């Protein structure tokens, strides 16, 4: 993997750390390509979201930032993009979910960066959360809605499950209902289903990552506080904290890969040596999902975190071990993971390499690949990196992360 550029958090307007976690300044990251082709990274930070351009040569330029909606900030800030709007959530009480028109960033000259006003520059603010906080935001690009998940408290009406956000009018986002019967959801991916289970073809299926299980919802009905139908669950071996995952193919929904955030930390099962593993699940029968195997996703101890897949290539942020890239096309034929191949990696936290790594919460939280192939990576401590696979699979970005399923 080649490194092209780096900007520290202070140079992106967000040098403040979390007083509770002094090493934490950065969190999630996503990306957007403007109508004129500018590649804009949205970098989550403790006190807001930074907008940074990635040039055609992979160089970073700071364009400005959107401050957080609350007065304190949070180490947990999640970002997605739908139809040129940034959807930004936070664990901070009173932050709610910001809806921001990215066209406001599209023509900024980096010589004159802009700090936007959180009160007057938003398109909309989704504030129908119990105390105004959510762990994560999810976008269903196929059906063009958003979801807040992990919205505390857990004993509220929606029990921290899937809280649907109708963005038909982005200036007035509303909640038609939620999926609550399996409790807290940490992350999810929702699509118009196109896979082997013919009972659900064309249905709006959400795969949720619910701490101790993969939970599968038919989310076609979103109206009411128990709107959606829970159709399947998987409690896989060694489940410790079911964190996040992604379909292995954009246009065929059969296998998902997922990360468990605490199995390495607690030395559980196949992760007992502290080296991160990625878990494979076969969802051919949505009502009866099956665990099929796992594969190691780094060569030393670390905590596995967010992963995304495009064109058969998985890009995973493994905290202190950095971003690792794997060819996962073989899973369709070898679902035990035995033929998965590592393609590249880049370590942003070399401090622990001499001791074989660690399971500390350090290094990289998330990454985003643009269609150009450039990968932007956000880190807790340092800032944002631009990387690219040096050659072969994964060098070109395909359609980039996110976006609609391409139906066969």
Automatic annotation (TrEMBL):
GO terms for cellular component: extracellular region. This is Uncharacterized protein. It comes from the Eukaryota.
């Amino acid at each position: 993997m080649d490194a092209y550029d780096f900007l520290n958090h202070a140079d992106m307007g967000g040098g403040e750390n979390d007083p509770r976690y002094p090493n934490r300044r950065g969190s999630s990251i996503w990306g957007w390509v403007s109508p004129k082709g500018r590649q804009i990274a949205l970098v989550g930070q403790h006190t807001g979201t930074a907008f940074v351009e990635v040039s055609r040569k992979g160089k970073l330029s700071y364009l400005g930032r959107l401050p957080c909606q609350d007065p304190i900030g949070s180490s947990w800030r999640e970002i997605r993009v739908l139809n040129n709007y940034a959807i930004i959530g936070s664990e901070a009480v009173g932050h709610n979910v910001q809806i921001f028109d990215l066209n406001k960033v599209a023509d900024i000259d980096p010589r004159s960066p802009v700090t936007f006003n959180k009160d007057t520059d938003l398109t909309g603010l989704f504030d129908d959360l119990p105390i105004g906080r959510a762990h994560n935001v999810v976008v269903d690009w196929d059906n063009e809605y958003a979801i807040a998940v992990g919205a505390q408290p857990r004993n509220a009406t929606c029990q921290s499950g899937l809280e649907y956000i109708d963005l038909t009018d982005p200036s007035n986002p509303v909640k038609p209902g939620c999926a609550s019967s399996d409790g807290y959801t940490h992350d999810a991916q929702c699509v118009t289903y196109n896979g082997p289970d013919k009972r659900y073809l064309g249905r709006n299926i959400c795969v949720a990552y619910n701490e101790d299980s993969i939970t599968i919802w038919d989310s076609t009905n979103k109206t009411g506080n128990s709107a959606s139908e829970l159709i399947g669950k998987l409690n896989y071996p060694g489940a410790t904290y079911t964190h996040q995952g992604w379909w292995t193919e954009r246009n065929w929904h059969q296998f998902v890969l997922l990360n468990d955030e605490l199995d390495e930390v607690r030395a559980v099962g196949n992760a007992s040596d502290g080296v991160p593993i990625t878990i494979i699940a076969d969802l051919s029968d949505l009502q009866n999902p099956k665990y099929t195997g796992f594969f190691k996703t780094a060569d030393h101890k670390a905590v596995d975190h967010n992963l995304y897949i495009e064109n058969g290539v998985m890009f995973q942020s493994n905290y202190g071990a950095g971003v690792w890239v794997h060819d996962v096309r073989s899973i369709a034929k070898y679902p035990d993971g035995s033929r998965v191949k590592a393609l590249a990696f880049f370590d942003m936290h070399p401090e622990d390499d001499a001791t074989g790594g660690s399971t500390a919460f350090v290094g990289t939280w998330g990454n985003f690949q643009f269609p150009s192939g450039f990968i932007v990576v956000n880190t807790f401590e340092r800032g944002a990196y631009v990387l690219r696979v040096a050659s072969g699979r994964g060098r070109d970005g395909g359609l980039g992360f996110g976006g609609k399923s391409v139906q066969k």
